[in-house]
Amino acid sequence: MKKWLTICAAIILVFTMAACGNKTTNNGTEGATKAPESTPSENNETLEQITLKFFSALADRSNGMGKIEQAIIDSYMQENPNVKIEVEALQDEPYKAKAKVYASTESLPDIMQSWGQPSFIKPLIDSGLLLELNSADFESSGFIAGSTDGFSQDGKLYGLPRNTDFLVLYYNKKMFDDNGISVPTTVSDLVEVSKQFRAKGINPITTNAMEGWSLPIWFEYAQQRTSGDFNKVDAVLNGEGTFSGDADFLAAAQSILDLADVKAFADGFLTADYGTSRNLFGQGQAAMYIMGNWEAGLATDENFPAEFRDNVGAISYPTSDKGKASDLAAWFGGGYSISKSTKHPEEAVKFMQYFFKPENWAKQLWQTGSGTPAQKFDEFLTGEESALQKGLVDVFGSTTSASNTPFHDLGTDEYKTKVMDAHQKLFGKSISPEDFLKELDAAVALLP
Amino acid sequence: MHKLLSNRRTIFALVAPGLFLFLFMVCFPIMMSAYYGMTDWRGIGSYQFVGLDNYMKILFNDPVFWRSLMNALLLLAATLLLQHPIALLFSILVTNAGRFEKLFRTIFFIPAVISIVVTSKMWVSVFHPNYGVLNKFLTAVGLESWKQDWLGDPSIAIWCVIFVIMWQGFGYALLLYYAGLQGIPKDLYEAAELDGAGRVKLYTKVVIPLLTPMVRVAVVIAVTACLKQMETIFLMTNGGPINTTQFIGNYLYKTAFTSSLYGYGNAISVIFVIVCLIITVIMNRAFKKDVGEF
């Protein structure tokens, strides 16, 4: 009897331990919203209950783009009570890490944020994890010509672009005025202005150098301003030439070092992540901020003092005799893709059609000043845009040449990490321009 | 009961669940890791077998890995040579603090109960070159020339990070020694006093030798914590600037999940396991000596 008791006890022990290890149901999705508890109408009772998992990299669900995304999801659920959309949202880098885990276990959420850049989307397409979309389904969305190219492979469409992105130099007008410094228009001005701010004990420029992805785009600007051509980098990536031994690339790297030499980069530059650098600028602790146009919301973010919001402006990267302000580092960035293994492909496509109706994403994004859509939005111009938004429209409207996809995103993740590491070293002054170019070549050598 | 436990079947039935879990959740993943470490798997899609290439590269051609390992050893040295002696000293002081004993015990243990996310982010703010309390304080007391970009300067960032990790673990180490001190019978103190031992002699000849078992536990915990350090690093610097504060756990994570080199990441984890095993063997050897009994 005792023996059996012991054996039973052992079995119970196993089960209790197994219970401890049970996968907890993931309801910790930030900002996840439950479907409104409306009583289904008679029609809906016959409809199948559908749950779509939606994975987003817009972690802040109460501000900017994340808020709009959530609002559209909520209104869709209200109009379609049989559909429940479960949102999981993470910050950029954790998002990408988790997306890889989902991909490697072939359990992608039904709809996920994707980037129309080879480093992100190519492995997913190559592994057959994304649903092919029919571009005719989205004709009425009015996507800008060329904006879906990054999401296409072999003529097939695997995702839809959400934003038009370009890198600009934000500046705090008040800090410039108070110190009697004028906004830089040329690259050499930028060095001079940085020197002046430093002399007054003010941080000149900040960006999210800890994550590091803004640095290669910055370098592309520097490179364009010395050579007058954005395509030079792409040529190297296509096997035509190298970074090392090219006078233009060397001069570009040197121009970054010139900035480093006058301490143009804010204190703690290399350890400032996205939030830290944004705060540093927004709280008036740095005079300039290198970041994408998606930060148009800086002018309306109430977390920052009014004197900042009223004084924030944006210009294209300072020019040179070869590179003009209209040469813009611009590309089509984030968007959405649908998992091939989704149980409800039709509903997912239907939701995407709803999401990209011009009056939904494009209109709301523009009119809240949260960014620039990848769809036509001229009909939604109100004339009441913030000065910052108008400045950004001016910058974008004048574009004569664009960089397209940032070059660190044109390869594998390993290549990307190497490129960003090399840039961190250059900006941190712990490498010579020559060695920097050599490291870039070593990274390019990793490309298939 | 004795009869029952001598029955082989019963023993097996009792041990099997634990053994099964151990094999399934510890040994099996390590073996899988060793296997994936021999591939060029990128997390998605197919992969090729590359033999020992990854392992060779880590051992002979990966300065970041060695830097991470050195940082772990540096942290270990700092923990054993600074944090623990101080924790021991303070545990003795707390034990003798009379009516303030409870108060001090609580105060010292506070950092250990606050989430690491909170304390790490707090220290990031303290060290911030512009609005950080530390630089502000230095300015206030006229030591402006001492101001630093604490976490951004590659030559000092590692020391700042090590300091924070020691600060976070201090309460725990103190509590271990404190518990050890409570376990030493009071009459031993009295006996030593009657025999004419002074304060210093009492501690060096009686108390500390009797604390040896606790020192062992504390050291083992410290060694493991130092080697697998990841969360504070991830939250404070993510190994930066330029990998100067990199630790193996974080490097492994970055390699696998940021660079998508799962094969290589797995190889790092296997080598990491081997390093841990070697250190465990060394520790066991070192602790083989007899300890004081009472």
Automatic annotation (TrEMBL), chain B:
InterPro entries: MetI-like, MetI-like_sf, UgpAE/MalFG_permease. It is found in: Cell membrane. The chain crosses the membrane at residues 12-36, 72-94, 106-124, 156-181, 261-282. Keywords: Cell membrane, Membrane, Transmembrane, Transmembrane helix, Transport. It comes from the Bacteria. Residues 69-283 form the ABC transmembrane type-1 domain. The keyword Transmembrane helix applies. PANTHER family: BLL4140 PROTEIN. Belongs to the binding-protein-dependent transport system permease family. This is Sugar ABC transporter permease.
